[in-house]
Please model this.
Amino acid sequence: MIIEDDREAASYLIKGLTESGYVVEHAADGREGLFLASSGKYDGLIVDRMLPGMDGLALISALRTADIVTPVLILSALGAVDDRVKGLRAGGDDYLVKPFAFAELLARIEALLRRGGTPVTATRLKVGDLELDLLSRQVTRAGTGIDLLPREFRLLEFLMRHAGQVVTRTMLLENVWDYHFDPQTNVIDVHVSRLRHKIDKGFDHALLQTIRGAGYSLRAN
Amino acid sequence: MSRLLRTNAFRLAALYMALFAASVLTLLVFIYFSTADFVERQTEETIGAEITGLQEQYREHGLLGLIEAINSRTAAERGEPTLYLLADPRLKRIAGNLASWPQTTPIKSGWVRFSVELNRQGQPVTYDALASVFVLNGDYRLLVGRDLRDAVTFRARVEQTLFVAALLTLALGLGGGLFMTRNVLRRIEAVNRTSARIIEGDLSERVPLTGSGDEFDQLAANLNAMLDRIERLMAGMRQVTDNIAHDLRTPLSRLRARLEVTLLERPDANRYAEALSETIAEADQLLGTFNALLSIAEAEAGARRDSMAELDLDEIARSVADLYEPVAEEKGLKLVLDAASSAPVRGDRHLLSQAIANLLDNALKYTPEGDVSLTVRRGDSTHVVIEVADNGPGVPADHREHVFDRFFRLENSRSTPGNGLGLSLVLAVAKLHGGEVRLDDNDPGLKVTMILPAAPERATLPSRTAA
Model:
């Protein structure tokens, strides 16, 4: 469900998400949004931070107090790190600064909705014939060991945890490096291409794919 | 004047006056009570001595002896106005210089006050008199007294003097208080006048200092420092808005023109798609510039001071170097990292990371071949130094001043991607942390040095290995 007071922005989101196969409902103010979200029947919420009737963060806090754990993506025009921290502390699961590319929003929604997919406690991740052991920190593809640098290991781990989903460059920068700024050079592309070189070279089937205009995706087929 | 009455200065003056007057008046009252009855007490002593003498006469020579003594004393009496009266039990005069027993005067022993009419130079004059009455055997009574002319005169003189003194005290207190507080009033007035002018819009005004270094000077100095900072911030804001207006307007009009021209062309789905994706790319670039400007403004405003924490700059440098190392390798450059020693600072991790990333980004972008080095070390005991050096074309000395300006780009770098904001952010971040940035020749190439104040050394923590 989308809780957003700007009609145009909301209709653009509804259109995009519906085309991507989601069923979307919309609330235009905080009170109505809280009322609907309290039912707990949604898989995910997109909440604008500044809402009439009730502030977005207050809404999320209220939901969390009521033990409603529906994943929440916060949308906000406030992009400073402090604002982000406040948003996540209030109970948000992810934070996206306006304006954003729709592909970015979609990728994050997918990541949020499938968060339950791979248990965080799993010690082995597997995508196709690629396996990653978190304890021994070893990576093998089709039984052959692959040597990775620590940062490459972390990058691959993140990609594998989100296997099948589109992962954007910003998501990688935020989650693997914990940076919240855009480097002028496209550093992420270089890292990904090196990783791809190590895990896909010499194999018929490329696991790590570039999704044009959005980011990357690690897929078994 | 009504304004004066409302001011703190006037209240201070009044308080000063009240305290001053109260203490002086207390003193005056004390003086009054210890001096006013001085003459009266002296009179009492004289009368007492006289009575003692007469009692002796009476004891030795009886009533007749006493009468004789009184007669001889009143005869000898000239200027000394001692009053004597010896009366029988029916209060009839036997001897003495008083015609009759004064009315309303008790007939038992003790001190009495009464009025007496005396003949002075042929004129009857009424005086207050003080006397002691002494009852003798057989109910004869002896009265010895003195008129109180001197005592009354003295008391009046004392009262008059003290009254004048009290008036003087009030006047001096008021004057002193006004004098003391006029300075305060005047100097606060100066601050007020300056503030008023600043409110009217002249932000270059400053509160005058007297140079005495007292509290008022300190207040003025602090106000001035505050004004300096506000002025700098306002100038920064103005510069940002000017730059945004100037530098975002150009790409925005280009973007608009592209869309307009596309609309004028013959409708063609492929052409439209192409124009749209070009427009999105341009919008993204605009947003990038916009975000960079906001970061700079934020760092300059010091808005994130509360997100400052104790950090290891060497660790931050390792982490950024880790991010950029593959980029260097891709270009065939070598990124040499020297961040072995601990370099504790108090700062904002995100901004410092971004500043170092910008420096590395620049160095890697403009260096065609060779090394780029990132060094973090302790400068001296109180400073930490970050150095990024490259073998690129460098920056000509006459341009070094300008590379920190927003949107400044060297002519020969216009073809490389970038928005001309990287070093502006580096400078803003350094200033936010109380540090500075220097540019030096690396022969060949450029060496950028960022000097930050070091945080006091903490107890050694197990340092996380940079992965």
User: Anything to note?
Assistant: Chain B touches chain A through 34 residues (CB under 8 Å). Residues 461-467 of chain B have pLDDT under 50 and may be disordered. Residues 149-199 of chain B form the longest helix (51 residues). The CA atoms of residues 193 and 199 of chain B lie 10 Å apart.
